[in-house]
Amino acid sequence: MRLHILNNPKDVPLAADAEFLTQALFRLLHSETTEIVLDTVKTLADCEDSSAVIEEVLPQLNERQTQNLILACGLFAQMLNIAEDVHHERRRLAHEQAGSSAAEGSVADTVRKLSEHNIGADAVQRQLDNTYIAAVLTAHPTEVQRQATLNFHRRIRALLPGREHCKSAEALEELQNEVDATLLALWQTSETRHFKITVNNEINNGVSIFPLSFFQALPKLYRSMEKTFQTAYPGIKVPDILQIGGWIGGDRDGNPFVSADTLRHAFTRHADTVFHYYRRQLSELYDDLPLSVRRVSVSEGVLALAAQSPDTEIAHEEEPYRRAIAYIMARLIARGRRLGLTLGCHFGLLEPYAGADEFMADLKTMQQSLRNNRSGLLAEARLADLIRTVSVFGFYMMPLDLRQHADKHSEVVAELFRHAGLEDYGALSEQEKQAVLLRELQSPRPLYSPYANYSEQTRHELAVFHEARRVKDELGEKAINQSIISNCEHPGDILALALLLKESGLLVLQENGKPQSRINIVPLFETIEALENACNVMETVFDIPWYRDLLESRGNIQEIMLGYSDSNKDGGYVSSSWGLYQAELGLVELFGRYNVRMRLFHGRGGSVGRGGGPSYQAILAQPEHSVAGQIRITEQGEVITAKYADAGNARRNLETLVAATLEASLLPQSQTPDGKLMQALSDSAFKHYRALITAEGFIDYFLQTSPIQEIATLNLGSRPASRKTLARIQDLRAIPWVFSWTQNRLMLPAWYGFGSAVEELCSQDAGRLKALQEHARNNPFFQAMLSNMEQVMAKADLTLAENYAALSESPERAAEIFALIKNEYLKSRRALLDILQTGELLSGNRSLARSLALRIPYLNALGGLQVALLKRLRKDPGNAHLLQMVHLTINGVAQGLRNTG
Q1: Count of other CB atoms within 10 angstroms of residue 249
Q2: Which of 29, 100, 493, 535 is the most exposed place for a label (fewest CB within 10 A)?
């Protein structure tokens, strides 16, 4: 194996872990496969040209052996990823134990920076009191791994650190046996789903993260943050600044399977999960607090709770805290039963809590009693964590956003108008639409009639809003806070949603005629054109007094969502990045002029081609005043697994969001980019990118030289891969677009056009190269863009990509298009290295370079296998077994590369 590249003394444990797992995998393959498969995998471990090895051996393999080779290559890449993860955690702990300075992205480092810049306690507290950060989990289909597979990965990850601590041969043998057994179970588990995943499956997968990590990570993070702040700023209080949100069950855009029923199912699962957690914690508290009145004093409040307790055990007569906990549990479970949950309570049931605030008030009564009566440590332990958990998660656990396409909202409004005998809404101009919408919004009468015969779509849409109102009534006002308008392009799109909210009782007119909304209206600007027009749209609605009154009812905060994926697919990475930055600059100025608080919601994917990349750098790269303590960011697919499936990882990744948000809000901003220079770069890159994707034959080239058709049949998510057909790029969803370019190893959406743009700019003015180099050193926006591009280009492989090009049904045209792509890649690579002033990609990111070098032999082998199988499948498209094997290669590449969509 290529362990010789681990030549740094710090990598010795990583090399040992990699060797340990490699030998375990060899033992597995020896027992589960044939000699030729095992020998091939061993050859791949040390070879430089995996594709050549595959080309030579593949004709000698039968179907079963081919399948086993695919699985083996995927498994090696997965295990090496796990070894890397364990090593990262090992190095982090080593830094902590050595007393090293706080790591960048930690709250401790942020507090240090705030102190160095003489930011006072009042300013810090004021900022904390006005900070709102949310990681929003979506169901976007980029996680190829089944939950069963992920569970085995977690088990291996938990076992591997034990290798260093084995003090005897017997202990090592026992560990090997556990690892071998887990690998065998993983090997014998199907990696792909044989069924189409449903919205309810996605809901269950999203919910599963909470017991795994969030319930542990968030209270610990809050406790740690408060302690860290108080070291520099005594008396500082950290309010609930951080939240986990979601879309799963409320996102209807392009997904006809999301309905009022799925929204209800989502919140039933949320409530069931969080109520079970609360019950477990109360049971633990019951064991923690058998404090006797003969040993401690107790407040009148706790005695009052204990007096109503259903716990009549004589042994507990002198233990008021236990009796109070029994009372609390009986009321909590009664509330759960009223919500339709099936959990029970061995103390019986009492009057249900009206809401989470009542539950928390009783917990705080106990906490205050402990603090006042020599039991402070107990007050700040499990009980404090439970109080924080209830404060953050309430009875709804994860607030959900609603989302739907602007056109769908308009179609419902048009039907409401038609049945009410009003104007033909669809035939009106934009100005006319705004006028009639405002007329209806200011009228107390509803348009909906229970006697009219509405279409299924209208009934479906209105039912979702009505269910959202009921959810808020039952679980709390914060359960659903946002309704997002996808593809928002006009002011009328915003007013149309407001009318639907009014029709469903989520927006009402007060006695003074002013609107009171229970939900935030959030326009999502997605395409390059929409981003350019965002300020015009918002200025128009801000000029409407009725809308300003609506904003006042929501705390004078307007949330704007920015779409990274479609703008990238539309205009390329450089133009999308700069377009987003420009849109934010304009919105900051506009909101300041109208004295409206802005919250930006960043719709980022996992891959760079969909706005991905390290969150810390991304937040700090935002324009000045665009964060201001308010930010929401989507997390999806494989990113959720990588960041949040482990409590330790979850805590660190969430801490990074907090640190970056506070730094962007409180610290002086770094150099802003040269607008003229960036605009010129963007315009040129856009021109070259659009020239490629609109070129004759390009769409056929893409469809034929990538596994896009096969990805569309992979059971990753509940929604279709395209909005209409796969014949037009604009109708293709951004996820399979990026996913496909990742599979054929071109990674094209994340760099194409950059090289030609730099070449063009520098040919016009040689001094521009120095200007770009200076930006790369000093400007966070440009640094983040180049860093992300560098990571992606390092994963590209032109030799392998050329093999995919051979799949085209038009070889001559394919050769021409590939030559364009190859030429642009070489230009972009050269330009990137010149600007970074380095000789190799990833020269400043040793960790990623090392990780890629270890995995590349297996990933390239999977690519070679995929090309060969696609050739066969294109000749025999009905062959289900071939399709299954292609799916396995897609899984293997996605798992090995990570951040695929």
Answers
A1: 29
A2: 100
